[in-house]
Amino acid sequence: MADLEKLVEELSKLSVLEAAELVKMLEEKWGVSAAAPVAAMAVAPTAAAAAAEPVEEKTEFDVVLKDAGPKKIETIKVIRQLTNLGLVEAKTMAETAGAKVLSGVGKEAANDAKAKLEAAGAVVEVV
């Protein structure tokens, strides 16, 4: 049996992107999905009930690269800093319009990444 304390310690060292990649790999290996099951409603809510429900604030954001801009090398450097990707992967991402640089990150991290990429000359959107 694996030493669970050691495993927890190792997993705690992962970046957000590495943890997301680990989830994808485990989903593929085990043939499961980590997404929470969504219960379908049997009856459509009325307009009054829908208005009474609080609006859920979005907590996870994606940073999408629209264009690398005129300083592509600077953009590639920033992508590498944000994602820990290799040079080839970062270059490919910079050349791909609509590429997700970060996925499922907090609002502060998304805005920080956007600011860094825009400072490098890229056109970025947080969704």
From TrEMBL:
It comes from the Bacteria. SUPFAM superfamilies: ClpS-like, Ribosomal protein L7/12, oligomerisation (N-terminal) domain. The keyword Ribonucleoprotein applies. Keywords: Ribonucleoprotein, Ribosomal protein. Pfam families: Ribosomal_L12, Ribosomal_L12_N. CDD domains: Ribosomal_L7_L12 (cd00387). One of its GO terms (biological process) is translation. Residues 4-51 form the Large ribosomal subunit protein bL12 oligomerization domain. GO terms for molecular function: mRNA binding; structural constituent of ribosome. Signal peptide: none annotated. Residues 61-126 form the Large ribosomal subunit protein bL12 C-terminal domain. GO terms for cellular component: cytoplasm; ribonucleoprotein complex; ribosome. Belongs to the bacterial ribosomal protein bL12 family. Forms part of the ribosomal stalk which helps the ribosome interact with GTP-bound translation factors. Is thus essential for accurate translation. PANTHER family: 39S RIBOSOMAL PROTEIN L12 (PTHR45987), LARGE RIBOSOMAL SUBUNIT PROTEIN BL12M (PTHR45987:SF4). Homodimer. Part of the ribosomal stalk of the 50S ribosomal subunit. Forms a multimeric L10(L12)X complex, where L10 forms an elongated spine to which 2 to 4 L12 dimers bind in a sequential fashion. Binds GTP-bound translation factors. This is Large ribosomal subunit protein bL12. The lineage of its organism: Bacteria, Bacillati, Chloroflexota, Anaerolineae, Anaerolineales. The gene is rplL.
